[in-house]
Request: fold
Amino acid sequence: MAILEKNGTKKPKWRINVCIIMAEPTTISEQQIWDALQEVMDPEIPTISMVDMGIITAVKTNTSGTEAFVEMTPTFSGCPAIKTMEQMVHDKLLEIGFKSVKVVTTFNKPWNSNLITERGLQHLKKHGLAPPPKHSGQITQDLLENVTCPFCGSKNVDLKSPFGPTLCRSLHYCNNCLQAFEQFKPVV
Ligand SMILES: [Zn+2]
Reply:
């Protein structure tokens, strides 16, 4: 492969081919939207993507693959970051080549913590947050007491406060590694 010199005199032949490929109409698949949105992080927990958080609920493209449609359901309706999240999704999809992007926020089907993907649960732990246990549509005492320390994996933990810095988190203390931590509470 020829290297273009600073003064631009040595133009490599392959450059022409690249230009032709770029001129073709691009078709972007729905899978590529999901992949791109894996890089858009939840504004409140930057170790987890909006996809893994279960916030992105549907993606579509038109037949020519130039327009994208995304539906999202934030974790709770009072979420102050909704506009920011819509903008981040919008900008990301323009960046991968869409001509037009429509992002719609809906609460028709409320978010619940079972929507967090397996990878998402791992990423919550990386952030030092105990992930919410899977539930069967009901919050029970057992569920609330089923807390595992994100640092050492011990279940020997005490509840310090049912409300952490935000309503969706509770505060705990691990009797094994002697560290305080927050749990992302289960939401049904
Ligand atoms: Zn621990």
In short: The longest helix spans residues 82-95.
